[in-house]
């Protein structure tokens, strides 16, 4: 059981690196979709088959693995974008930073005051690493699609943390979180569309022209 | 006690009918002032305030005689709320002047701001005046911290609306803003103080006297309390808001603010110190030092003013300083275990609380009458009011003699007690305590300067001849205004001649403040009475001395009438000087001001020519703490923050996200570690 969970978590971390290093938006979206789908399996692998985990897994898979990537890909096709408009920091340095963050997360997780059953597992470090990789994406990318992806990765990190508490957390809370995510991505899609129409680019640096 | 609550409620709602009527009229769109209706609601407000004040005095006296329940409580559906009021001797000392001054203000108001002249915000002003008067007794008897803070905040906001009544003038708006900033800084400090006092839970019952052990958070509690209550009381250098606010408000509101509102800072300090079973000596030294600084700085700055209400406001700083000096001596006495020092110091401070409330209100009311007659607050433009307003002049003189601490009036009695306390400290063998005797010369300097200041004011405003043709009617004050002043003047004379009547009250209040000391010996009980008895004798002697002086004065006056007048002997080419050539307030104070209050800026524009040409002298005396220290400091801080914001707030989304991530990381490291 632990073997499968750990395998899944390591895959999540590897996908983090893929999103950091890739410049093609299409494959980035697919990678994040794969990450979401893998995450949907984690509750099942970690806590076994119960009604709660099944609902959670199916919901997460439908949203993170299918619906949101589909929305993003469709937006991408409409805007005829392929490549990203160049990050603020280069891809290789970003990956190095990502590696540093991941190792820091592993070290830091040992210092957290955790309950004994959560200690030593891969859950906490993976969650922290994914969270901060999401932040890194948000900070270093210029175009709106990559920033939405960063937001999704960040949310995936929180989801990993949440699965640790899947038994303690009521279903409604998790359903609410997923719904928030969906609504958030829809709004971001609309905003992206507006930015594209206004500036004919998705580079968010143009937005700071309005600064007072 | 239930009587006091009813009195507070009566006063609090006194302005409500007028406000309701005014707002109804505004809703109907009728813009014109309707004097008849407003005069009716004004009479209602006056009647309610007077009824509340009388009821309040009855309640306090009944409480002192031990009649009726001492506390009243009700359920209050607020988390942590405790609605309990308790009337003890310490509260009574503060409530007595509240009732007298509010009654005087109620009688004074209709004459000072007549409805038929369409005074600005008339109904709102009366409403907030009544609300403030009703909140004061609640604050002074509150037993729960939440109730205390609620009343504190109501008072602070009422004060703001009273200060900014004439908000069509920019100076008034500025004064109101400064007041609002200061009072909320004080509230912030008090919140912190109550949180520390309750050990993290700020909503609790105020501790009983002498129930808290020293040590622990006591130092932090005292420092925060000194900041919060000191800001309210106007201790130097926290007095910056006081002069402009008290000068901006309409006169009887100034009397309320200056005579009563700042006393709640003193009340808070007294209560705070009484909570502790034993107090460190440095508390006493701090209070003594701050009090002496306030007294000397307040009176020297007052001497430099030429706006009569600002001048009186600076005298409030001085008198708060004297009160805090007394409190400091009493605190030193508690730290050293000297009952006589406690009894005399605290007795003097408490008596001065009552006295200052009375004579400062009297001075403000008389000054308001003079301002009404001459149409200006500038001393340099007033003059010769004695002939036109003999009653006002007499009342102002009584207030001036009282505030200077001269026998036979009440200011002398309380200052005498504080002198005695300072001199008692010299007898103590502990080396440190003997130094407290230095409070006596400080008090003497303050008394001398105050005397010079009021000689200046009385001479310039009431003596001589009018400097300008005043635009308004120069009639004497109305009957209501005169009776208000007479009430306060009677209080001043009464306490001056029969101070022993207040001895039981002061003894009981001292016992409330320092139960351990009061129980220790009869010296404490004897201390106040002894001091008061001496003061009474001195007052009586001075009063008796006045009689032959008055006889001589009358005789000289009669002789003067017989002698031929109107023959200028030594004209020096100015045989018929214009009224403007009279001695001015600034020139009178010049020598003393340059010695005691440096930092004045004098502008002279006199062309260097052979023949005299028009010249100008402009004297401006900035407040060192506000104009030289705080305002430049604030400006510098504001500029610094503008620069920091330009760097941080750069419009890059990535940068903002970086801040979020960094904050998250820092929080994780701080709170997440083992």
Average pLDDT across residues of chain B? 85
Shape label of chain B: globular
Q: What is the overall number of helices of chain B?
A: 26
Taken in chain order, the helices and strands of chain B follow as HHHEEHHHHHHHHHHHHHHHHHHHHHEEHH
What structural class do the secondary elements of chain A suggest?
mainly alpha
Greatest chain-chain contact: A-B, 17 and 17 residues
Helix content of chain A: over 70%
Cα separation of the termini of chain A = 56 Å
Description:
The complex is a heterodimer of chains A (212) and B (674). Chain A has 212 residues and is mostly helical. Chain A has one domain (2-210). Chain A contains seven helices and no strands. Chain A is globular. The model of chain A has no long low-confidence stretch (mean pLDDT 82). Chain B is mainly α and 674 residues long. Among the domains of chain B are: 279-554 and 584-603, no CATH class; 627-672. Chain B is 71% helix and 3% strand. Chain B has a two-stranded antiparallel sheet. In chain B, strands 3-4 form a two-stranded antiparallel sheet. The longest helix of chain B is centred in the last third of the chain and has 41 residues, at 522-562. In chain B, 50% of the residues are buried. The model of chain B has no long low-confidence stretch (mean pLDDT 85). Classes of the chains: A mainly alpha (212), B mainly alpha (674). At the A-B interface, helix 5 of A face helix 26 of B.
Summarize this structure as a short list of keywords or feature phrases:
heterodimer; A: 212 residues; mainly alpha; 75% helix; B: 674 residues; two-stranded antiparallel ribbon; two-stranded antiparallel sheet; 26 helices
